[in-house]
Write a structure and sequence with these properties.
The chain has about 475 residues and is an alpha/beta fold. Helix content is about 40%, strand content about 20%. It folds into three domains: about 170 residues, VC0802-like (2-Layer Sandwich); about 220 residues, HUPs (Rossmann fold, 3-Layer(aba) Sandwich); about 80 residues, Rhodanese-like domain (Oxidized Rhodanese, domain 1, 3-Layer(aba) Sandwich). Helix 2 crosses helix 3 and helix 7 packs antiparallel against helix 18. The protein binds adenosine-5'-triphosphate. Its EC number is 2.8.1.4. Pathway: Cofactor biosynthesis; thiamine diphosphate biosynthesis.
Length: about 475
């Protein structure tokens, strides 16, 4: 089973050495991720494409490989290809008919052939032959050269015939690692999640920097979402998750800064800290999810005052985007339910925040701020490799995790319904409720509170976060269920 991976068109207009480097990177990214699903998958980078060959035609393997390639930056589309030795026109037609008969029935169609190498026929001759055959044998609605419902695609390279049976849309963008690394300031909300995704898609290894304003449950939630993004779109390269405890910085701001300036000053503190982190990692830029006027503090004047605190480049991929478009992207990339579920944790909720920050005034306010508090927060920064997040959360878990279900206990499977269908939790002896994590908080209150509930998810990360969250809200009858593996 073979795939032809077509490059994102912007790669093909690069100079020769740059294009070569990008193709090599795409090849190695695909190698890293595809080998995880089957060690015998072969990936070959060529001048105008990357070829991927699976060791078998197993359907599950094929589906996983397609899903993985569809989430890999740098790919325009993925062609699923069957390969045959090039025979006579009649043989080529018979093969084409076998693959396409069902697809062209009742539809208008066109045959398109791409040919490379020397042959004694023209592509148009073969297109006509096959088109005539399909017309005669397949109950089509006829040929339409301009707006066909189905395009029958063949490629001939030397003495090989490639028949494209399916086409999948790729992610576009540049192969991960072809652009400089960046650090994304991630709060777990819609905006920073989409901003992080956009820099990954554009080819930058994207590290995550989180300022913890809201305690352990917030941190687990943000780790979960960062892990999701990395796993799905960026796992060809390892990145860091950096967490800075910012509660005392917020406390210092609350005590010593006038309320109208708190928001801007908090962001300036974040930028100062981000600069130090970026310096340590020798990186030139960080990323935020701000967009003009989305909230009253995100005016151009305020953003300029925020920027002036650092010499690093602040990349704002969403700067002119509408909120609804941003939310739509989270749905497309599968991050909507995660982001929606992250509560607003910002402790610095300004009453009538300034929309017109003056640098002088901000600096006056900041003169009252004890910068040792910021230095201490930076001292306490934690850096972990993103692939160690699950381990880390489990090591530091504060909620008791049980391996068995006892009397008066019920399991709540909090996974997304997609996951529940894919891998049902089969426990005939226990009572299992299914409440996806995004409905949990509201539905939990309606449950019989004389019982104890054990939350279950795939890796034990979501269940820790939500159990913690419910306990913080005063529900003591909640624990985690983690079966032994
Ligand atoms: N706790 C945090 N940790 C890391 N970055 C943060 C944090 N809070 C805010 N940011 C960064 O600042 C940006 C603007 O945050 P703000 O809270 O003003 O807006 P927002 O629209 O709520 O953002 P988001 O939807 O990303 O939470 C965020 O997109 C993010 O990049």
């Amino acid at each position: 089973m073979k795939f032809i991976v077509k490059l994102f068109p912007e790669i093909t207009i690069k100079s020769k050495p740059v294009r070569k480097r990008f193709i090599q990177r795409l090849q190695s990214n695909l190698q890293v991720t595809l080998k995880r699903i089957d060690n015998d998958i072969k990936v070959r980078g060529l001048w105008d494409r990357v070829e991927v060959e699976l060791p078998s035609a197993d359907r599950a393997l094929r589906a996983r490989a397609v899903e993985l390639m569809c989430c890999t930056p740098g790919i325009q589309h993925i062609l699923e290809v069957d390969q045959y030795p090039l025979g006579t026109f009649e043989e080529v037609f018979q093969i084409t008919r076998e693959v396409y008969a069902g697809q062209v029935k009742g539809k208008t169609f066109v045959v398109r052939i791409k040919r490379g190498g020397r042959h004694e026929f023209k592509s148009t001759d073969l297109e006509r032959y096959i088109g005539g055959g399909l017309l005669e044998h397949c109950e089509t609605r006829g040929v339409d050269l301009h707006n066909p419902e189905v395009t029958v695609k063949l490629e001939i390279r030397d003495q090989q015939l490639f028949l494209i049976s399916h086409q999948h849309k790729g992610l576009g963008g540049y192969p991960l690692g072809t652009q400089e690394d960046v650090i994304s300031l991630i709060s777990g909300g819609f905006d920073s999640v989409v901003a992080s995704y956009m820099t990954m898609r554009r080819g930058s290894k994207t590290h995550f920097l989180f300022f913890n304003l809201g305690g352990r449950a917030h941190e687990i939630g943000v780790k979960q979402i960062a892990l999701y993004l990395w796993h799905r779109y960026g796992s060809a390269a390892r990145v860091k998750f950096i967490s800075v405890p910012f509660d005392e910085v917020v406390g210092e701001i609350l005590q010593n800064v006038h309320h109208t300036h708190m928001g801007v000053i908090l962001k300036r503190m974040m930028m100062r800290a981000a600069e130090k982190v970026a310096d340590r990692m020798k990186l030139p830029a960080f990323v935020t999810g701000e967009s003009i006027a989305q909230v009253s503090s995100q005016t151009l004047i305020n953003l300029q005052v925020i920027d002036s605190v650092t010499s690093k480049l602040i990349v704002r991929p969403l700067v002119t985007m509408d909120k609804q478009d941003i939310i739509d992207i989270t749905k497309e990339i599968g991050a909507y339910d995660f982001a929606k579920n992250i509560p607003e944790y910002c402790g610095v909720i300004s009453d009538r925040p300034t929309t017109n920050a003056k640098l002088e005034r901000i600096e006056e306010e900041e003169a009252n701020f004890d910068f040792d508090v910021l230095a201490q927060a930076l001292e306490n920064t934690q850096v972990i490799s993103i692939d160690k997040i699950v381990e880390d959360i489990n090591i530091h878990a504060t909620i008791e995790a049980l391996t068995r279900v006892g009397e008066n206990q019920m399991i709540i499977d909090i996974r997304h319904s997609r996951e529940q269908e894919r891998k049902p939790l089969n426990m005939p002896k226990a009572e299992v409720l299914t409440i996806p994590f995004f409905d949990l908080e509201t539905k939990f209150q309606e449950l019989d509170q004389t019982k104890e509930y054990l939350l279950y998810c795939d890796k034990g990360v979501m269940s820790q976060m939500h159990a913690q969250n419910l306990q913080d809200k005063g529900f003591c009858n909640v624990k985690v269920y983690r079966p032994e593996v």
